[in-house]
Amino acid sequence: MLLGDLIARFADPLTVDAALAAVDDLALVTRITVRADAAGLSTGAFAAECVAHYADTASDEEWTTLMGQMGRAEDPGIVLMRRALDAGCSEGTGGCTCGGH
Which of 10, 11, 13, 81 is deepest in the core (most CB within 10 A)? Predict the structure, then answer.
């Protein structure tokens, strides 16, 4: 699957919900769920916005790192999801930069 196709799949909140279940990071999923509630969105819709924001704004260095990790992963979609959520919606950003826009 092409990367663009993979990112497009994350526009579907149901796909994102399934991917969140597979992320295996309860703390990350909890932060996303709390922020989604605060933004008045479903968790899937909020996470889909985070993935879209990441795809639009990630640096060249970040893309290089992502490609390397995805190339070694059994499930590249989960790698993309985790990096996108960590980059845009981690507690270290001083506030989520995606979702609810």
Answer: 81
Per-residue pLDDT tens digits for 5-60: 767 777 787 887 788 888 888 998 898 889 889 989 888 888 888 888 888 889 99
The pTM assigned to this predicted structure is: 0.76
Residue 61 lies in a domain: yes
| Number of separate domains in the chain | 1
Residue 99 in any domain: the answer is: no
Measured CA to CA, the distance from residue 47 to residue 6 in angstroms comes to: 14
